[in-house]
UniProtKB/TrEMBL annotation:
Assigned protein family: Belongs to the peptidase S45 family.
PANTHER family (UniProt xref): PENICILLIN ACYLASE FAMILY PROTEIN, PEPTIDASE S45 PENICILLIN AMIDASE
Keyword Hydrolase: yes
Protein name listed in UniProt: Penicillin acylase family protein
Superkingdom of origin: Bacteria
Organism: Emticicia soli
Amino acid sequence: MKLFKKILIGLFILIILIGISVFLWLNSFKPDLNAELHLKGLKNEVEILYDDYGVPHIYAQNEEDLFYAFGYAHAQDRLFQMELLRRLADGRLAELFGEKAVASDKFFRTLGFRKHAKWTLDSLVSKNPDAPFVKASQAYIKGINAYIEQGKMPLEFTLAGIPKKPFTLEDSYIISGYMGFTFAEAFRAEAIATFIHDKYGEAYLQDVWSQWPKGGPTIPVKGKDSTSKVARNLASMANQLAVIEATAPFPPFHGSNGWVISGSKTKSGKPILSNDTHIAFSQPSVWYEAHLECPGFKFYGNFLAGTPLAALGHSQYGGWGLTMFENDDVDFFREKANPQNQNQVWYKDHWEDLKVYEETIKVKDAADVKLAIKSSRHGIIMNESFDKMADQKDPIAMWWVFHQFPSHMLEVFYDISHAKNATQAAKAVSNLSAPGLNFMWGDTEGNIAWWAAAKLPKRPKHVNPMLILDGSTGNDDPMGWYDFSENPQILNPQRGVLYTANNQPADMGTGFVPGYYVPADRAKRIEQLLFTDKKDWTTDQVRTVINDVTSPNYKGLLKDIIPIIFAEELSPLAKKSIEKLIPWNGTHNLEEVEPTIFYRFLYYIFVNTVKDELGNEVFLSFEHNTNFKRNMISMIKKEDSPWWDNIHTPEKETRRQILTKSLNEAAASLEKQLGGDIDKWQWEKVHTLTHKHPLGILPVVGSFFNVGPFPVPGGRETINNLDFPIDSTGIYQVSYGPALRRILDFANPEQGRSVLPTGQSGNVMSKHYNDQARMFVEGGSRGELMNRTDIEKVQTGKTLLKP
């Protein structure tokens, strides 16, 4: 017995020693924020003060040293994120993760971000080496490489076996290219639209794929069978792309809210800017915050990994927020292949040679994959990038605005960060080609402005750019470009408020701007809350708006459909569900059961209307498509929509029958999932948020890197837009939402308020890895400090960088 006791004590001590050793080992990867370092290439000493949330406040004597130091600090906190993002954009994930990453690598190699970056460098950077944005960007890259050379490599580099490799400015541009791709809804949508149109006809398409529902809020400003087979193969592209996005180590962009309130309507007398960018959640957080200061430049910004210039930010003069423009900047062309020569396609009256080059994808623990990348005059041929398109006879070419111009992205963000007024900001954003972005501006002079920035193509009048076009005739080809002056934009609107929520702009000389504009729910709710006579707005009051969880359109939908349901055919639990939904005003609070019932009801409506026509694979991508989401309510309200009929049954189903059936099925599935007590079907039990780290998939240790899950309020297209796919599980795991919530009163630009979904640091042992996670789900905020006295009061670290 004594021997057994000694063995137990020995094992206990051994476990403690192992635990301590593991803890010390993990802690050894955490950087020291109180340090004095010597870096080659610095001209003068630089100070970095870290506040109580790990935000670096960098003070330099010149701008090149400032961006050098920022590159160092950024890499210290987020090098693993930078590394994975450049590998993702460059199609080099399979080198780390093996064959499961080949599909992603094939797709991104085909998009050719590296080639485009080389073109940009040759066109803009090499010819302008002394341009301020070039010097700042190159200094940032030097800072990253200084950290790689003498700093601690992240834990993930050890676990994943990632070798050290210096960064280049080319890498920053390929990351910018990936940012452009994630905004292009056409990649996911146009194949599905063509499938519906070609197989079922215009009547089916118009109910689920029209441009913008009549009366929806706009941004006020000044061979059929063979074809349907092709379209179905193309529609599989959307599903495969959805899988690539879901497993990507860096999340795609999805939408955003933003508004600016004029000083005539605020208590301070100066504009208030609010912005929350909607991006798929991940860990670390997408945005990285930093305050940069040197003589002539004082700036607080939000930066993407591996990019030197802030995509969001403000100075003491003015600042901006972003949302997606959602303009359609991608067209797909079906080329006519030469049956005698696979590298030729027909154009107008002759065969043209395709351009061809080969890429080699290196795969961990497997043979290299050879990929022939071809392009026509219309763009890159996409067939080889997707499994079910590889054997497609006719090539499908992708024409993308991004590919038509060298990227001015870094120049745009450099110039706007240095802008002192709306005139200078407008000039800065006018150079953007793709992706299309809405810039909302406010400044201390009292100006508020909005610009829909992008190169907008002129298309022939007959062209519907949401369908796949004919590349053989030349009749569908773009015809040129609109001047930026014709883009949707407004300066100092009379009503004193401007906003964008990815909704459609009103006509602006160019006529309708084709795009993948999202449902009107958020736009309508923003108008309800902001378009009032209120003239004393404060930042705290604006925060209640940015955290709002009400969808104004669901109440109207239920009011329309509940009266026509066959009440006598409902189960007892379905009848109780109706009783809950009748008074519901569309709120999505944690304790409520109504959202749980509503989305389950909605899922079965989708299954019983569109799934029989689309099939399982296309349905998966269709349900979460912005066009369907935008038109879903109007379709459900339409009594004679052809979608109500099940094509697999001899009888013709009616809307009333389908709605009744769907509610019964929803109630039955909820009883099976959550029990028979309807009052226990709270939203918090099914709607959760987990911030997933790329290594979160690893067995045993993976959950150590993830943050969450958290029950969260909000829902689909509420202002607090915590969205999710709707599927058979009845569990709504949030896929994307606000990647930050940021509010700024220009009466005091040194005291902005913000919150990140998790935290600043990418180091799992840092307290700043997840110290904002609870604050985020509870709708709180903390300071974006720019005043040195305020910063020193909460200072937690000081790093001196010396030449």
